[in-house]
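Why does residue order matter? Because the sequence determines the fold. Keep that principle in mind as you read this record.
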Amino acid sequence: MSDPQGKKVDEDWKRRAQEEKERLSVGQGGPAGAPKIEVPPGVVRKQPPEPPAEPGPPAKRGAAKPAGSRPPADPEEARRTYPEATFETLVGGLAQQALVGLGQMEHPATGQRELDLESARYTIDSLVMLRHKTKGNLGAEESARLEEIISELQMIFVQISNRLGQRK
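Structure:
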């Protein structure tokens, strides 16, 4: 800025932003003498991002991304890394979420099969809502696939609930 007053405002803003950044970094290697904030047991503090890996061959479209990886900064790389955003991938992702809640698949974070009927019910209900909201706007294949997925998930849910005596 050519205005001396504007320059002062910018410098003051930068100084305050830096002070705020330092204040927020307390307990994360913050300024010397700052009190350390204790993290409760079982809580994992998010680590700073890792530096980018060495460049390698380009990823194929739709290739699975490695667990724990961040979205790429380069939009072109993002298009190569993530599957195409389609109705099928959305429904498939929700179906996988329901299967994890039903204990039919390993939880991606823990690697364990866990039963969470409330989570499964919520996800199945979300698919039912999606069916209702998209009625008349889907192709025949999309509509049939959505019906098939909802039916299968509801059947599994009922079977598990009946086995546990928790049918709601």
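Confidence is low (pLDDT under 50) at residues 26-40, 43-48.
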